[in-house]
Every structure is written in structure tokens, then in C-alpha cells.
Write the C-alpha cells for this entry.
Amino acid sequence: MSPTVLSGGRFLQRGRCVDRDHELSAVLADDTRYNIYRWIAEQPGTDVTVADVATEFGLHPNVARMHLAKLEQAGFLATGFRRAAGGGRPAKLYRLSDLVVTFGFPPRRYELLSRLAIESLSAGGTREDALRVCREAGVAEGRRALAGDAETPKNRAAAAALVASIAEEQGLLPEVEWLDGSLSVVVNNCSFRELSGADPDLVCMMHRAFLEGVLQVATSGLGRLQIDPGDCRISCGGDRCEMLCSFSPGDG
């Protein structure tokens, strides 16, 4: 029995009203299925097969196929086919869908602020006004993550772990590591993607402003922060966003 979609992301199924967020979270509640989704989400431009997933996670192909089918049915994955050499049965391909998953526990607080920032532009505000709102949201997230701690981390490993934790909580699918004395922050999911249609450059700057606010707080114990934004941007067609952070004495 197919669901009937109602308002507010809810649908009726088998005579009962089910919250869409609940359905999505139930699909990802299985650890193996979540890890498969996370693995595919971290390579958004790549198609994978049942055999790829079975090999990566040490699963029987039938088990891998079952997990992929559930992710596809929920809308997390899109599918296509690749013709086999010699005219055999085409291989089914799975890739990350365009579904933007916005549920979370707790929910992402900066989504509302990002919309307010865009609305401020519509009301005659400047781009800097919009970026300030998003940067302040990032600072607030950093301070919230530090609540209860006496001070920010003063060693590199702890600071990187804090940045990764905040970014992970916000659904950014981050990769955070130290490279030759600089902190590399790679984001595999742009949470502002659904807002990017008319002005991707602005949305990209807003997302980076949010991350700058997070980094400002989380790494304040390491010194004066300088950020090289890199060239790769999701909002403008890239498969990830990259930021390289360096620190110099003065504000640590």
C-alpha cells in the first residue's frame, strides 16, 4: 500500500499517520545501512554496484542488495543501469540522490538563520549582513559545543576532534586532519544546498561564514586563525568544500 502524502512532511500508511522524519531515521537506524549510506554520501559523484558494497563491507551480495534497496525506497539513493560488455544483464548502479535530509536530533539550528540571512537581503540588507548572521550562527554552535568546558582545546588533536564533532552533528560529513602544520577541513555535504538556486556564490559564502564561526571558537586556543578557502565548492558544482586553516601566535 503506497503512502498518501499529507502536509508538513507526514503521510498516511495502513490507516495511521507516520512522520517522514521517523521513517527516514528508521531506515538509517541499522548500523550497517547507515555506514553504507555514509560511504556513498562521501563520494557523491560516484556510482556504486551491489558488488562494490559487498566488497567494501564484507557482506553477502544479497545482504548488500537488501540494504541498497531500502535506501533507494526511502529516497536516499537514486539508481541507473550500465550496459554489460557482451550484451549481458545491465548492472544496477546506485548513487546519492538529491534528497536533502534535514531531520536531526537536535535539529540544525542554523537553517532558520540562513533563511533569515537571505530574507535580510530581500529587505535591502547587504551581503555582509547575511554573512554576519551566518558567522554568528557558527560562533554560537562552537560555544554551545564547548558548554561546560573551562577553555577551548590548546592541542591540535583535541581542536581537530572538536571541529569534526561540531561539523558531524550539523550533518556536514566532515574530514578533519592536520596536514603539514595546517588543519584541513573537508565538507562532503552542503547543508545550504537547497537554498543555492538563484545565487550559488552567495550561498557558498554563507556556508563558509558559518564554518568560519565554528572554527573561530573551536581553534581559538591555537592562535590567530587564517583560512584559505580553496577552489572546491559544492554549491558551485564541486563534490566537496575544502578549507585549509593555519595559525600564528597572537590570539591563542
